[in-house]
Write a structure and sequence with these properties.
The protein is α+β, with helices and mostly antiparallel strands and about 170 residues long. It has 2 domains: about 1-40; about 45-169, Immunoglobulin-like (Sandwich), CATH 2.60.40. The protein is about 25% helix and about 35% strand. The protein is built from 2 helices and 12 strands; from the N terminus they run αβββββαβββββββ. The strands form 3 sheets. Strands 1, 3, 4, 5 and 10 form a 5-stranded antiparallel β-sheet that branches. A hairpin with an 8-residue loop joins strand 11 and strand 12 (about 160-169). The chain is elongated. The termini are far apart. It comes from Gordonia terrae. This is Enoyl-CoA hydratase.
Length: about 170
């Protein structure tokens, strides 16, 4: 290799390296922008990642005619509202017995949530359902941020409660 060839290669190597470095930097900035997104974020409450000891359904009895059914529990968190859990109770189809149920096929109960020791119950609005189900009831729990064990149950005995371990942002 002659000295002129070596000088030409040395002179052209740094600009090529700079071009490759610039291209790699631009690609990484573009990939980051695509991953993060652009514009205003529209965060909404999403299902909270959780561990459930007994599933998501409360099996319970109601207020009359031996009425019974399930209530599905859903827990959501919203990054814009830290320290809050939005819980929705969706009653399934309830059934009952006897003439009292035939006259009034609506079963009503309330759900309570607890995450403190000693127990301090946070009662929901009444949850009502019949043979076709019922309307969902939403409750806002102000837990604060952190890892919580939250239990959901009704005053009926016997029943199957719901127990979540979830992280609240």
């Amino acid at each position: 290799m002659t000295s002129t060839t070596a000088q030409i290669r040395t002179a052209t190597a740094p600009p090529r390296a700079r071009t490759l470095l610039t291209a790699a930097l631009l690609l990484s900035v573009l990939a980051t922008a695509l991953a993060i997104g652009s514009g205003i974020a529209t965060a909404r409450p999403t299902e909270a990642p959780r561990l459930s000891a007994y599933g998501d359904d409360i099996w319970t009895f109601g207020n009359h005619a031996n009425c019974r059914g399930t209530i599905h529990v859903s827990a959501k968190t919203d990054p814009r509202q830290p320290g809050k859990v939005f819980v929705t109770y969706r009653p399934g189809r309830f059934t009952g017995d006897g003439p009292g149920w035939r006259r009034n096929p609506v079963c009503t109960t309330r759900v309570f949530a607890n995450w403190t020791i000693p127990a301090r119950y946070h009662w929901s609005a009444p949850v009502s359902a019949g043979p076709r189900g019922g309307k969902a009831v939403t409750q806002v729990l102000r837990t604060g941020s952190g890892l919580y064990g939250i239990g959901f149950a009704t005053p009926a005995v016997p029943q199957k409660p719901v127990q979540y371990t979830l992280f609240v942002s």
